[in-house]
């Protein structure tokens, strides 16, 4: 399957379905794009494999709303019986998750 992207690029962020078991985010995960980003992920996750990795290596700036998006996707995946793993998180994202005490809840992996 070839990568497919969405209409988020005008908001400074893109969510790409790389394969049946991988998503990739690129750009800034800030307030302006959070609702659309969350919605796009919620459309993609149900039709994907049981274990999904989300590559965060191309994420730029991150606010607490970016962590909220990851939490929404994580809850949805759990309800669907899927496992979501977030890989290559930038230091800023890890710092925001630590400040909010969610670093032990969100499955970050290197």
From TrEMBL:
Domain of life of the native organism: Bacteria
Gene3D superfamilies in the cross-refs: STAS domain
Signal peptide as annotated in the record: none
A Pfam family that the UniProt record links to this protein: STAS_2
SUPFAM superfamilies: SpoIIaa-like
Domain STAS: 23-110
Name by which UniProt lists this protein: STAS domain-containing protein
UniProt source species: Ketobacter alkanivorans
């Amino acid at each position: 399957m070839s990568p497919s992207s969405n209409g988020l690029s005008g908001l400074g962020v893109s969510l790409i379905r790389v394969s049946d078991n991988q998503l990739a985010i690129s750009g800034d995960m800030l307030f302006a794009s959070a609702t659309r980003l969350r919605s796009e992920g919620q459309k993609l996750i149900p039709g994907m494999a049981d274990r999904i990795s989300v590559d965060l290596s191309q994420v730029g700036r991150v606010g607490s709303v970016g962590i909220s998006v990851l939490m929404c996707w994580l809850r949805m995946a759990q309800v669907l019986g899927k496992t979501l793993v977030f890989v290559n998180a930038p230091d800023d994202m890890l710092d925001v998750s630590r400040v909010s005490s969610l670093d032990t809840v969100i499955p970050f992996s290197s």
